[in-house]
Amino acid sequence: LTPFCRYNTLTPRTSSNGHNTTSLLTVTFFLSQYFLTSTTTTTTRSSTPSVVVSPIPTITQTPMELGLMFAWLCTILYLTSRLPQIYKNFIRQTCDGLSVAMFVCAAMGNLTYTLSVLAKSLERDYLVRALPFLLGSGGTLILDLVIFFQFWLDKRLKGKRNEAVMG
Questions:
Q1: What DSSP element (H or E) covers 43?
Q2: Strand, coil or helix: what is 13?
C-alpha cells in the first residue's frame, strides 16, 4: 500500500457521521436556547422599562453579549473537537496515524493559554467572565490527556503483542 491509497485495508474504516451530527445538534441547541431566551427592553408610557422575552433573535444585542455568545460557541466546538478522535482510537484499538507531536503542541498551547487567563486575575467576577475560555482550553487539555493515555496504552499493548510473537 502506498501512503496515498484511498482505502487502507489494514485498519477498519469507521464512520463518524453520527458523531458530527451529534456535535452540530448540540451547538444548534445551545444557540437556539440563547436566541429563544434573549431579552429586549421596552419602555411603556409610564417610562418604566420592562423586560420582554423575545422568541425571535434580536439584532440589538450588545457587543459584549455577542462576544459572549461566540465565546460559548467556541467552547462547545473546541471541547467536542477531541471526542471523535478519542472514540475512533477506542473503536480501532490503536492510535496509528496520529501525530504525538501535534497533540503535544496543542496541549502546550492549551496549558499556556489557561495559565495566562489565570495569571491575569483570580477574582471571582473575572473568572466568571473568563469561564468559557477556561473551560475551552482547560477542558480540551483534559481531553488531550485522554489521547496521551491512549497513545501510552497503544504503545504498551503493541510491546506485549511483539513479545508474544517473538517469545
A1: strand 39-43
A2: coil
Q: Residue 93 region, left (φ>0) first, then alpha (ψ -120 to 50), else beta?
A: left
Q: Give the whole-angstrom CA distance, residue 11 versus residue 88.
A: 11
User: How far out from the chain centre does Cα 48 lie?
Assistant: 42
Concatenated DSSP letters for 55-124? SS--S---HHHHHHHHHHHHHHHHHHTSHHHHHHHHHHT--TT--HHHHHHHHHHHHHHHHHHHHH---H
pLDDT in tens, 158-167: 887 777 777 6
pLDDT tens digit sequence for 71-93: 999 999 999 999 999 999 999 99
In 10 A of CB 106, how many CB atoms? Answer: 18
The partner residues of 40 in beta bridges, in order of sequence, read 52
Q: Model pTM?
A: 0.62
Give the three cell numbers for residue 72.
Answer: 460559548
